[in-house]
# Entry
Amino acid sequence: MNVTFDHSEDIAHNIKSFWFKPERPVRYTAGQFTEMYLPHENPDDRGIKRWFTLSSSPADGMVSITTKFASHQSSTFKQHLRELQPGTPLKLADPMGDFVLPKDATIPLVFVAGGMGITPMHSMIKYLQDAGEKRNIHLIYAVTEEDELTFVPLFEGYDLKFTPVVKAPGPDYKGETGSLSVDRILQLAPDDGRTLYYLSGPEPMVEAFFNEFQTKGVPKDRLVGDYFPGYQQF
# Structure
């Protein structure tokens, strides 16, 4: 799909959302992803394409992606993305993916996000808020430092249970701290036999949790996984 860059906004420390106007209305399901094509001179070996979740709600007039920038030298793709000027034309692949809400609105949901794995959760929760739909959701959101927590006003404003987990908190932080594990997730959000566990974050985290949940008795058909290649930790 053809889009035009509209604006960017700072969401958290080194994290920005980029908003694009589509050439024509885009139909997609909250939680789906796209591929962005961003040609630029002298690209590094990571090239000119990236996969991104659409962090926007399908009810928004524009589409957005949200990404983190390294504190050191970013890839040429990220450098070019950061420098986009309003009005720049771009191409995005048609949205795709099945990391989406279940059709049965009565199923309890536990969203487990590591770092930038929060973006599909944001899309889904924002869509539910836009639609005025209430679902039973417990969001467990793990980051390294407190200033990496994104979209907190939405999560606190929607009627869900919100549990941030900060690995290296500051002295004034009062919430959950340390590392996330499947045992800890099940302590925070016990399995009632119907719960769907949505896992999103760095590929090693999602793969490890996906396997460990099954060893703890949660069957594969109640696990929904989505990972972000290229992010090794959160």
